[in-house]
Amino acid sequence: MDAETIVDFSLNEAGRMDQLRLLRLKAVLQIAQQQPKQTMDIHRKSRLHSQHISTAELLLKLGMQSLPIARSFLMNALRLEPTNYLAWFNLGLVSKFEGSLQQAADFFQAAYELKLSSPVQKFK
């Protein structure tokens, strides 16, 4: 069993906070392994994933009552593409607005690290 398989199994068993840490770990593993097949799968799912992030961004603008729904959309986006820095960044905004500043800082740090390791130009 490889590390990514173990992380995937753990995602099903973990609580919300642990899921976020595991998704971040999965992103790091995928980057480290430089998996071209994963990259192609992620590209195919990018439309759905972009819709999740766009919806979450809109919900963030609507205010506090929409934060749990925005978080849900962002978590779904991260399940599709754990290396997406925009999803991590927006998750940081949700946590900041909820008052979870340490969690927000962790998400912003993840977004920053992923942004640094992302290609200059997206696959089209």
Helix/strand-derived category reads: mainly alpha
Strand content: under 5%
User: What's the order of the H and E elements?
Assistant: HHHHHHH
Question: Largest sheet at a glance?
Answer: none
Mean pLDDT: 75
CATH topological fold name of the domain at 36-117: Serine Threonine Protein Phosphatase 5, Tetratricopeptide repeat
Secondary-structure arrangement, i.e. CATH architecture of the domain at 36-117: Alpha Horseshoe
Helix content: over 70%
> What best-fitting shape do the alpha-carbon axes yield?
globular
> Looking at this structure, what is the CATH superfamily of the domain at 36-117?
Tetratricopeptide repeat domain
Low-confidence stretches: none
Briefly, what CATH class of the domain at 36-117? Mainly Alpha
| Secondary structure tally: strands | 0
Count of helix runs? 7
Radius of gyration: 14 Å
Distance between the termini: 32 Å
Polypeptide structure, described:
The protein is mostly helical. It has a domain at 36-117: Serine Threonine Protein Phosphatase 5, Tetratricopeptide repeat. It has seven helices and no strands. Helix 4 (46-62) runs antiparallel to helix 5 (67-80). It is globular and about 40 Å long. The termini are far apart. The model has no long low-confidence stretch (mean pLDDT 75).
